[in-house]
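User: Structure with pyridoxal-5'-phosphate, tokens only please.
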Amino acid sequence: MPDEKSFHMTPEEFRQRGHAMVDWIADYHSRIESFPVLSQVKPGQIRAALPENPPAQGESFDALLKDVDRVILPGVTHWQSPNFFAYFPCNASGPGILGDLLSSGLGVQGMLWSTSPACTELETHVLDWLVGMLGLPEKFLSSSSGGGVIQDTASSAALCALLAARERATNYSSNKKGCDGKLVAYASTQTHSSLEKAAMIAGLGVENLRLIEVDEKFAMHPEALARQVEADKKAGLTPCFVCATIGTTSSNGMDPIAAIAEVCRQHNLWLHVDAAMSGTAMLCPEFRYLQNGVELAHSYNFNPHKWMFTSFDCNCFWVADRNALIQTLSILPEYLRNQASESGSVIDYRDWHIQLGRRFRSLKLWFVIRHYGVEGLQHHIREHVHLAQQFAEWVRNDDGFEIAAPAPLNLVCFRHKGGDAANQIIMDRLNRSGDLYLTHTKLNGKMTLRMCVGQTNTQTRHVKRAWERIQEEAQKLA
Ligand SMILES: Cc1ncc(COP(=O)(O)O)c(C=O)c1O
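Assistant:
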């Protein structure tokens, strides 16, 4: 009998191409410093280089790889360059990439325990490990009342926390009847915009998200929070949720968790702690003073995909009361019923987030943690913090520049004293040069440059060179 017609890649071909692909990635990482960090293409340039129509016949893998070099690479901003200091890191690593590859190779969809028990159990186990590794409260352990789950992003984690808070405050009736316009949530003026989005999606409405003022360190004022909650209660509204941040996006502001938690306790509000980037620093006990009071939080999240060497996407989200989350998000159609779920002895993570399907994301986290060990992770995080602190010292010692916000960890907000236009010129010229990539924010109405150290391979020489380039551009202004 003739073979059935197939267009698939054979396992042998996959092996060969896979080796070539891994070689390509390893070469890319070796030569990454030769590329301009910020992609220099114009809008539309990448699409213009792509054929108008898809190929009618399949093409060779070699042709594909050639086009990756020719068409795609020029349009890549190199987040994995050690000269990437923009936004926040998104630092990949060898073990993380290989764990991600294995996840694709296994091709598991882990919506239920029974659709791949290892997908669920490894996730539960690794998230329990992380509770200890980050000094989080035991109530977040799966053996306690809570538990952890991997979400795609901090935005999704915040939304899930807000939804659970909404249901808790309305005795689980908002899911049935919708919101009545009276629920109120609280964050600070510096909280990430994902909270606004969450308020929109959760049906509270952005007008019912109160943005509480911050102090000179860009940290939420707990007294202002208490005053606002009391005013809202007096007005007949129903406060239900507070988001406190450990490391705000703009300036790495640190909200006082313990004082905010006390307000939440008094008014029975759900406290969510967003430690998207800075949570990784909690691997090192000496930085945990920044999360004092976290034992009072109802939920907490951080992004290993930012600073913990785990390729995007990977957010870890814990709740103290898993039943509140599950009751909020669980729907059970007949086709998902199975004996394991009904036995009540397994976790079905589909009930812990928005979507149904889920990838085997814990593999990459497991690979990262096992490769580095706690000691290796701590070493590199300390090194990044040390480099940022060194940079801050250089800025302080230069009369032309000033520090714009406290820099407790790896983000330094600073500015040239020449004003907004000068800072804009310095930043634009640096980014256009391709030597490094910096982004900005506005603090107290002034344009501020942000130097965020956290890419996997950033070393002293990169930070030193960045500072030299910044000084060079500043001198040109004069
Ligand atoms: C403090 C904070 N929260 C939330 C986010 C959103 O992250 P994600 O892309 O994982 O939704 C960020 C990222 O900028 C952040 O810095």
